[in-house]
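writing this on my phone so excuse typos. first protein, seq and then structure
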Amino acid sequence: MVRDKVRIRFRKGGELRLVSHHDLMRCFERMLRRADLPFHSTEGFNPKPRLVFALSLALGIVGAEEVVELELDEELPLEEILEKLRHQAPSGLELFQIDRIDSKSTAQVHRVCYRVSIPPEKQSGLPERMAAILADHHCWVERARPTPRRLDVRGYIRDLNLQNNFLEMDLEVTPQGTARPDEILQLLELGELLTEGAILERSKLELLDKNLSTQANACC
């Protein structure tokens, strides 16, 4: 029986941004085992820790405020859980907050923000293109995966800003999906940025579920 459930905020950066979501899950599994925490396991012939990530992060993107939820068979002090995991975390993985949540609660992402550095020579005409997208009723993109289709992503775009040479993309997340940052860059005629080595950062991951347990406060 699950006795406790916690939500952990973490940053994935450095060389670890080149680790896939699947490998990140395996990394957390190893951390839990090495930390000797009483994690709750799945059933079956190959039991694994019950870990749920709020939203997967594409390969190569830095995650500044990522979320993972963990089920435990015992209730431990939040500080103890966080410190034990920090001691096992690899370089590039920073665990900075933990909350105790209701065992039936599940993280529901409703907003994400991405940011990317824009060289000055590529900023000419960019504010006008951003304004045109925000003023339009439709923004059609060609999405190849999981199946080729044409998709209107305008409803997912909350805002676009250019500040201090950084483009900020504020996007809605719904049960039907969301827009992808590379799609927004293509719409802004900046699709070559990523192939030229620009690094995307998911700077914010905002949850719809704010119903944290009153049994404990956040521990940072």
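second protein below, same order as before
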Amino acid sequence: MDESADVTSREDPASIGGRLRQTLVFALNFLKHPRMVGTFAVSSPALVRRLLQGVDWSRQRRIVEFGPGVGTITGGILKAMAPEAGLLAIEMNTDFVRELERRFPDPRLHIVNASAADVQAQLARLGWPDADLVISGIPFSTMPAQVRDAILDAVAAMLAPDGQFLVYQYANHVLQPLRQRFAVVEGESEWRNVVPVRIFRCRQPFAPAAEPERTTRPT
């Protein structure tokens, strides 16, 4: 990770005040929306490092993050990515959207209050043909299967041929759906988190199956 990359933030996320604010906003929203938020604690620094390591940041130009929350991982991405790159952060929770806007007045960051299922429309709005990197922390295990499948199908369809999909979850429920859409799915664990996390690194999306051709019977 390039720690020298320029990123502006209204506060030092490592400060005591910054950590307390992030923890409070996150915890309160977990109490209000447990199925949407997925966990009661923000990601640990160890998880952020583990998740973002190994990415060739010099090659990433169009980056998407699903469920950025209060921006713990967003801040790491902004520090690592190139000055000319862009980051699209898609967040459904309006409290989190306000916190992201307050913390990161970075012109490379595009924050939208929307569902991850709308990612293709959001890419089109920005004029992006595809995404080089997609990072997702949304809780796939607590959402309806049809919503999960719609999001994963959208990612597989809009990921660049040499792109990567990084998924971090608190269970293995999403593993089989990922294997159905990506030729390469590598899993690992990060134990240095309040709740241990599974990380899946996915590449080489399968081409969508062609719909069977309809034939018309002669009358």
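Strands lie at 62-66, 86-91, 109-113, 131-136, 159-169, 182-190, 197-205. thats all i got for now
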